[in-house]
Design goal:
By secondary structure, the chain is α+β, with helices and mostly antiparallel strands. It contains three helices and five strands, in the order ααβββαββ. It has helices spanning 8-25, 31-44, 91-104, and strands spanning 49-57, 67-75, 79-84, 108-113, 120-125. Strands 1-2-3-4-5 form a five-stranded mixed β-sheet, with helices on both faces. Helix 1 crosses helix 2 (31-44). The radius of gyration is 15 Å and the shape is globular. The model has no long low-confidence stretch (mean pLDDT 93).
Length: 130
């Protein structure tokens, strides 16, 4: 029996849009090229998004942020998309994406790599510690 995944309808469209980009462009371009193409495809797939939203990072009880980070996309205010254009995704990239979910206070994300011969992606879920 298939598990009911949170925001499955959104993530399936994002993955479909990503495959469309990779099918047309292939691999070998800088990440920004894929970002621009994916922005176009997300719109065609009927998905609203924000791109490169700067998020402050706080540490413990310090009143001021210690830095900022930018995720590539936040789709429909619910799904974080982190893109790469590298030959292979490593554990560091997974950790980075999970950290982005944490600081953006989102539960579901996609790590998508356009740099390999075939498009690769990983669905990520962050569950806050209670």
């Amino acid at each position: 029996m298939e598990q009911d995944l949170k925001y499955k309808d959104i993530t399936e469209k994002i993955i479909g849009a990503s495959f469309e980009v990779h099918k047309f462009l292939g691999n070998g371009f800088p990440e920004v090229i894929y970002q621009r193409a994916l922005a176009y495809e997300l719109t065609k797939f009927g998905l609203s998004y924000k791109r490169e939203i700067e998020q402050q990072i706080f540490y413990k009880d310090l009143p001021k942020p210690i830095g900022t980070r930018r995720a590539d996309f936040v789709v429909k205010g619910k799904v974080l998309v982190e893109m790469k254009a590298i030959s292979e995704i490593t554990d560091v990239h997974y950790a980075q994406s999970l950290n982005y979910l944490k600081i953006y206070k989102l539960e579901v994300g996609l790590l998508i790599n356009f740099g390999s011969k075939s498009l690769t992606f990983k669905r990520l879920v962050y569950t806050p510690k209670t």
